[in-house]
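I am still learning, so can you show me any protein sequence you like together with the matching structure tokens, please?
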Amino acid sequence: MKTYLALILNDIRLAFRQKVVIFFNYLMPMGFFLIFATAFHAEQGGAILQTVTMVSVIGILGNGLFGAGMRAVQERETNILRRYKVAPISPLPLLVASTITGLVVYMPYVFAMFTLAHFTYGMAVPPNLLTVFAFIMLGLIAVRSIGLIIASTVNSMQESAIIVQIAYMSMLFLSGSTFPTSMFPDWLLVVTQFIPATHIVTGLQGILMRQETLATNWQSVLALALTAVTGLFLCVKLFRWEKEEKMRPAAKLWILAVLVPFLAVGAWQAKTKENVTKNKILGREMQRSRTVLIRNARIITGTGRVIENGGVLLKAGKIEAIYEDNIPEADSVRAVGVEAAGKTVMPGLIDMHVHLGAPGGIMTDWKDYDADKAAQRELAAYLYSGVTAVRSLGDMAEGILKIRQTVNSAEKLGAELFAVGPLFTTTGGHGTEYFRAMPEPVRKQLDAQFVRIPKSDADAKAMVDALKAMGVDGIKAVMEAGAGATHFERMDPRILAAIGAAAKADGLRMAVHTGDPRDIEDAIAAGASSIEHGSYRQRIPDADFALMAKNGIAFDPTLSVGEAFQQFAAGKLDLLGRSLVQQAAPPKILAATMKSIETPDVVAMRKRLADYPIDMAIAKDNLVRAFKAGVTLVTGTDAGNMLVLHGPTVQHELQLWVEAGIPPLDAIQAATANSAKLLGAVGRFGTIEKGRDATLLIVDGNPLTDIHALEAISFVMFKGERVTRSELFDQE
């Protein structure tokens, strides 16, 4: 033990005498820290975590590769090690002393950096600080082992410099320690999984940002530990005391042996892409952690209040403060300033009734149509249009839940998704016009996956329980087959009641598609949470609205789809001419719809739709009377149906509401707070209040005096991230 202690103390003393040690362990990392802190505006929220992560890894690489690798070669080439040989002493104490010296030299810088980050840039002290330091030390030991094995296999300082530089540069630029990996394409992210430093960056980010444990990062921890042990063992076996002792060129293959754990982890990650996904999510979370101050804007809070001139401070993805007077300067709260004079800030809009994967226009070629890819693009189109959450009412369960995970986890950017999975009906989907247009194999496949047709109370309960186990966000039942269906076969009210009882027992809200007052009355009796459509053909009795208000049942009138069916039946395409539709909708679908409107098949489809009774005056009257009766209103559009394209849907729905006589402020509250409440998310979004998600829509003008201003989008803020709308449709 005395030998080890003496060697460690001597090694530390010698290390601090060398300028190169001071440079790579203190001056260079601190220089990078100050440069990155300035470049990333580290004072503005979570950017300091990115800075700390990147600079920590740069220091680890410098200490491990240059401090261990090149210094060990230098000591052998200058015959310093020869003196230990005659002691005599074994290589192990020297190697252990080198490793501990590296820790002793580097860790004071880590403490200094964290102190500076806290007091100068406002970084909160990590609650898992010991885990942070333990992971940094493990990474340092592993990289020093790589450096030492390089030193053990080279024959000169020149060889050492070349190999160390190759290792250093590849890890420096590909690991995320200089360029954020969020900038990398997927194929390059896969390549980086074979690089040790990548796992140090990813692990440290997760530990700092998410308070992950070492166990959470077990793959990286295991690979680092195996590299450290393997490297130390091989260094003992390959140790040379004098420069005259030469290694054969093939000995350099031992470097690859040390990297075997990372080659194995990289191969596994190339298959599963777990870390690729994690890197994307961490990159997005980093962006969302910024501190932003929106100043001098009109604020519609979603709670019924309007602040004519105020400010909103966003921090770590949440609303930190709301200012009505004395709005601070951005610098004083360490925030990015956004001047919003003449603009209106409001909660992101919500569409409560969409059908993801249904194109919303005419498809002339179903052969290459991928519903899952289409749904992903549609969620991007919603976010592009300021619609930050959607509820998809009727989906293929497995596909839609995978898409929900992809988007809601932040792997890909799109509106937050709530999905009910397969809908409950009596006829399936095969009678609708969209299914008529599909090839027979596609119709059968989809019909089998997105409908449930219960034959008994027990069937209904089993089906609801199965969907609950899959993780759906709600249940949808159809009391009648919708517009364009071959017939109107009603669901047995007893079956509907069984579905409602099972949904209530499983804690799921039930949305019910209705077509007339009889459907609505059965839905109320069955415990519906929302009435979808209401009726386009009959006046809904006041008594039904009184019951809905009493029971807290929301009304989603979906005026957009009624108007769209009327216009499509008449061969009118005015709805496709809106600027936001042109921006957000798939160009191929727009072009195919416009080109095919007068083809024989489409004319026949239009004639069948014309037979479905729709009276927009009745529908609007039902909406206004529901409002006056105190029914909770929510906004849905039935997007995915003909001429109701995904994306800029709620804006037009609100325009129809205002035309019907709903006050703009109440219409906006329906599309924000009311809809969020029905989703069970009112504590997260839907209002501008302290502690809510920083999910906001900023528009030019004042939608309270001109509801069309909702289409004049200035920018979208999603969970604290200012969305680059132009890049939404470029996601792989």
Summary: Residues 483-487 have pLDDT under 50 and may be disordered. The radius of gyration is 32 Å. The first strand starts at residue 292 and ends at 300. Residues 349-730 form a domain with the TIM Barrel fold (CATH 3.20.20.140).
